[in-house]
Write a structure and sequence with these properties.
The complex is a heterodimer. Chain A is of the alpha+beta class. Chain A is built from five helices and seven strands, in the order αααααβββββββ. The chains are: A alpha+beta, B mainly beta.
Chain lengths: 231, 304
């Protein structure tokens, strides 16, 4: 087995370029409706592709050649809307990230994701929308959605009763299409959104499943690029 | 390691430039972030889907991966396991890891049973020389045996080998000795193993697609069947003898009962001398049948 030093292969990657390929193939295979992006939006992936090619990364010729225009909006850079409570949350560096989760290694990525899910659970159980933004990039749609829900619960003086998602195992997968990927296996136990009096507003049922968390190494630590349910 | 870079005639595929597509949540899509953490809909952007067998078949046939239409460009494909240290051409390209196995664990054969692999390609020029440097990742899949190029050892083969293991059948050692006990008396049960078959911890070695694969059974649970309609377990306890054994049964009625200890085997596997990884499946084996006679004791006052 190579020594840990071989981890130099974990290079920084621009998000967006390879994501195109993932969605293109995956959605086409699934027969899902996919829409084409505008030419303007492709400028960023193209630039990222050229940059990566220059530093030994993988280029994506498909992305650079596609120029089909469309007026359809895309979600590639969709921030939380201005009406969302999360828009008021200012991401800062979380000083409580464990030392093990700051290492630029597979084990460090796994530790970071474990901490991320602990913060996700805490965010819902305490209705605190400030916990995930310091751990995720603005473009992480699912992260933003979880934060928006926590903000909504806070504004309505509600919270999640129980552990939102119980992690069974975490394992690094290596460099994927959106960043360094980590697999999370676990389950959601029955729980509920309750108000201050304990009245159940909405309840959840048991579900087992997997998440794929894509991480970006900033040079100082990990950030969550995307959180996806694996099907 | 059977190979690191799958090249050659079989891996040179014609394919067209794929259009750039970005998924957009459709109206009515179930967004992520709701109370059911796993309930994102496929068109919300919150779902990670692997390449299906149909897409891989298109790659093999040189068709456009998205449209299935004929293609004019030539691509060379390779794949590596979805593991931190796996890179195209690297020493660990085919080595499985916990994540790659778990990513596809629980899937049906139709969904692909992994281990998950990442598929790469690069364009070739007319003389078959790579036209670009570096490999382009195009996706992941739980069908490692269907990727273009040389077949890759998949979990389907490993699971088949696991289920073909000559399992050792546990035998019940019962106290009181002689397989005779008394009504209402605590009767002790203990797991013992025959010499035949592979019991937990014993390694079964086989060769699959040129790889040395070792399978090591583990215990997921024992179920003690007492023969009178009752049982105990599943439990990890292997029972024991008087007075410390923790698996006992008191028969309320006299008779002859057929007892057995069933085992649910789990397992671990290792490919090419690599790390032991859990096998995402189990197999339940019925133990050796043991007749047990339960007698009624009559108290008699004897005067000499």
């Amino acid at each position: 087995m190579p020594a840990l030093g071989s981890y130099h292969r974990w290079r920084h990657r621009e998000v967006g370029n390879d994501e195109v390929g993932n969605d293109a193939v995956g959605n086409a295979a699934a027969g899902n409706a996919v829409k084409k992006t505008s030419a303007a939006l492709l400028a960023v992936p193209l630039a990222a592709s050229m940059l990566l090619a220059g530093c030994g990364g993988d280029s994506n010729p498909d992305a650079s050649r596609s120029s089909t225009a469309s007026s359809s909006p895309t979600t590639t850079a969709a921030p939380i809307t201005s009406t969302s409570p999360t828009a008021t949350v200012t991401p800062t560096i979380d000083p409580n990230i464990p030392a093990a989760a700051r290492a630029h290694t597979p084990a460090g990525a796994e530790a970071f994701v474990r901490y991320f899910f602990a913060q996700l659970n805490r965010s819902w159980s305490t209705a605190d929308p400030s916990l995930l933004p310091p751990l995720s990039e603005p473009g992480c749609k699912t992260c933003g959605a979880f934060t928006a829900s926590a903000a909504k619960y806070r504004s309505q003086e509600q919270h999640y009763k129980g552990e939102f998602f119980s992690v069974t195992s975490i394992a690094a997968l290596g460099e994927g299409l959106k960043g360094q990927e980590v697999l999370v296996v676990g389950q959601q136990e029955p729980g509920a959104i309750v108000d201050q009096s304990g009245t159940v507003i909405e309840s959840s049922v048991r579900q087992a499943g997997k998440f794929v968390v894509s991480l970006h190494w900033t040079g100082k630590g990990w950030n969550t690029v995307e959180l996806q349910v694996q099907k | 390691m059977k190979h690191n870079l799958r090249r050659g005639f079989g891996s040179i595929i014609m394919a067209t430039v794929a259009g750039t597509l970005i998924s957009i949540p459709a109206s009515g899509a179930t967004p992520c972030g709701g109370i059911q953490a796993l309930n994102c809909s496929a068109d919300s952007g919150g779902i990670a889907t692997g390449m299906t067998s149909e897409v891989l078949d298109r790659a093999k046939k040189g068709l456009n991966l998205q449209t299935g239409e004929p293609d004019r460009r030539v691509f060379e494909y390779t794949s590596v396991t979805a593991c931190p240290l796996s890179t195209p051409g690297g020493a660990n390209a085919d080595a499985p890891c916990v994540g790659a196995v778990q990513a596809c664990a629980g899937n049906t054969p139709q969904q692909g049973q992994g281990p998950q692999v990442r598929l790469y390609r690069r364009e070739l020029d007319a003389s078959g020389i790579p036209a670009v440097t570096g490999w382009q990742r195009i996706g992941t899949t739980c069908f490692p045996d269907l990727v273009p190029g040389t077949p890759v050892l998949g979990m389907a083969q490993i699971l088949a080998a696991f289920h073909n293991t000559a399992w050792a059948k546990p035998t019940a050692h019962i106290q009181p000795e002689g397989n005779v006990t008394l009504v209402t008396l605590a009767t002790y049960f203990e797991v013992t193993w025959p010499t035949a078959g592979f019991q937990p911890g014993e390694i079964d070695t086989t060769t699959l697609l040129g790889n040395r694969v070792r399978i090591r059974p583990t215990v997921e649970g024992y179920t003690y069947v007492f023969g009178d309609g009752t049982s105990s377990g599943p439990t990890l306890s292997a029972g024991g003898v008087y007075p410390d054994g923790d698996i006992t049964h008191a028969y309320p009625k006299a008779g002859t009962y057929t007892t057995h200890i069933d085992i649910t085997y789990g397992g671990e596997f290792s490919v090419g001398g690599g790390a032991w990884l859990p096998i995402p499946d189990t197999a339940t084996v019925t133990g050796q049948l043991q007749p047990l006679t339960v007698k009624t004791a009559h108290a008699r006052l004897v005067t000499k």
